[in-house]
Amino acid sequence: MKYIKSDYEVFELELKSYPFPCKLCKKEQAIIEIPSQKIKVCKDCYNQFFENRIKKAIESYKMFKTYDKIGVFLSGGKDSATLLAVLKKLYPEVALQGIYINLGIRYYSDKAEEVVIKLCKKLNVPLYIYNLPKEENFRIDDFIFTYFKNKICSVCGAIKRYLFSKIAKNLGLTVIATGHHLDDTVSTMLNLFFQGDFESLVKLEPVLKPLYTGQATKIKPLYTTPEKEIFFYAVLNELPIVNFVCPHADFTSIKKKKKFLEDLSKENRQIKYQLLSVFLKKLIPLIKSHPQYKEKLVQPVNICIKCGEATSSSDQICSRCKRIALLNKVSDKTLELSYQEFLKYVEKLDKEKIAIFVVNEETDIFPNAIYISSEFLNVSKRKFLKFFKPYKDKILFFYSSDPKQSYLFVLKLKKAGFKVFNIKSVSF
Ligand code: SF4
Question: Is 402 part of a structural domain of the chain?
C-alpha cells in the first residue's frame, strides 16, 4: 500500500514472503522489516515490538493512570488512528474517547470524518464529532479571505487548541493524547532551536501538566516511535486511514528539516534518538532552570475575556478570538459557485474580463476554456505564478468533474491574491 503524505513524501509498504524465519521468534515467516532495527520479522513480532516501545514510553514518563479518561483527537491520518488502536489494545480497562473535529475543509474534512467513523467502529471506541461550520458558522477555508491567507495552518492550530480544551472539559477528559511521533518532535525541536525559540521547546516534552485546575494533561505516547513504523503498523493491522493530504498543508520548512534529518540518519541510524535525548535531558532542563523561565511560571495565567480559555496574550484576548474577529469583518466568503450561479455571475461581465480553466479534461460545457493539468500544481511557486501572471486582472473560474482538483487551483491562486472561483457542479 502507498500512503500519500505530501507531494514530496510517499510511504510504501509491500509485504514480502522472505525465504527465512522471523528474526525475533525464529518460527513464523518474516514478512516485514522494522526500519529502525534493520531486522525482518513476522506480523506478530512487528506488532509486539511496536507496542512495547509505546508502552515503555507511557510507563517511563508516567503518562496516565488507569482511572483517567483519555481523549484521542482523531484526524483520519495514520498517527492518531494508530495511537487509538494501540491504547485500546494495551489498556483495555482505560476509558477511551475518540474525538473528531470537522474543520469544514472542503473535499477533505467530510471524507476524513467517514474514515474516523469506520476506525472507531472497528476498535469499538465511542466517538464524539464536533462540526465547526455547523456549530460556529465558519470553516477553516474562510480564513483565505483574511490577512492569514498564507498562514492557514497557524489559524487552524489556534482554533483546534481552543476546541481541544473546550471539548475535553465538556466530556470530562482528564488526559488528551496526541499522535506526535519521533520525527515530528525532533524536526520541530530543530526548527525551534534554529529560530532561537527556547520557550516553545519546553512545550515539546512528552507530558504537559495542566496550567490551571480543570485543564487536561496532554500526553504524546508515540514520542519515541518513528513515523515510518507507524504507517507500517497502520497498514499491517488494516486500520482505516485517509490517503490524501489537507489542501492547506504547507510542507516547505518541515520538508527542509526532515530532509536534513534523513541525511543525518543515513550516517547515523540513532541520530533522532540522540537528538531527542540531548534536548530532553540537557537543553530543556537548562531552559527550565533559567530565572526568566521560572519567573514566568509563577505568573498567573491570563484568561481570554471573550472565550474564557487560557491565553499568553497580555491584552487578554486569545489568538483564536482575534482571528475570528478578523474573519467576522469579511462579508463575502464565496469560493465556489454552482453552474447556474456562474452563468448569472458572468452574464453582465465583459468576456475579456474572465478566464475559464478546465482541469484534467476537455469539455464542451466551456468551449473557450483553457486546459490545465493538475500536475501543474506541483511546479515551483515561481513557475506557477509566472504562468498565471497574465490573468492577474481577470476573474478566473476553474472547473473539473472532480471538483477537488479545480478547488486546489482556486486555493493556491486565492492565496496569491487572485480573484478566483471554483465551479463546483454542472447540472442542466
Ligand atoms: Fe489544519 Fe493545516 Fe492540518 Fe490542514 S494541514 S488540518 S489547515 S493544520
Answer: yes
Q: Establish if 315 belongs to a structural domain.
A: no
Residue 211 in domain = yes
> Do the Cβ atoms of 338 and 424 come closer than 8 Å?
yes
* Of the listed ranges 60-74, 291-305, 355-369, the one predicted with least confidence: 291-305
As given in the structure block, the three cell numbers for residue 382 are: 515561481
Locate the DSSP E strands across 75-219: 95-102, 127-131, 175-177, 207-208, 217-219
For residues 379 and 244, state if they share a domain.
no
* For range 265-271, the mean pLDDT: 86
* CA distances, 122 to each of 112, 131, 239 (Å): 15, 22, 8
The conformation of residue 360, written as its DSSP 8-state character, comes to S
Whole-angstrom distance, CA of residue 226 vs CA of residue 183 = 6
- To test ligand 1's pocket by mutation, which of 116, 132, 153, 411 has the most ligand atoms within 8 angstroms of CB? 153
Would the CB of 245 count as within 6 Å of ligand 1? no
Reported as a single tens digit per residue, the pLDDT across 83-130 is 999 999 999 999 999 999 999 999 999 999 999 999 999 999 999 999
Q: Is 153 in the pocket of ligand 1 (CB under 6 A)?
A: yes
Please check whether residue 97 lies inside any domain of the structure: yes
| CA–CA separation, 295 and 406 (whole Å) | 52
Cα–Cα distance between 419 and 397 in angstroms, integer? 9
- Check residue 139 and give left, alpha or beta (phi > 0: left; psi -120 to 50: alpha): beta
Domain CATH for 277: 3.40.50.620
Number of domains in the chain: 2
Give 4-45 pLDDT, tens digit per residue: 665 556 677 888 889 999 999 999 999 999 988 999 999 999
The CATH number covering residue 399 comes to 3.40.250.10
For a pocket test of ligand 1, which of 138, 144, 248 has the largest count of ligand atoms closer than 8 A to its C-beta? 248
Ligand 1 centroid–CA 104 distance in Å is 11
Q: Is 155 in the pocket of ligand 1 (CB under 6 A)?
A: no
Residue 357 belongs to domain spanning: 336-425
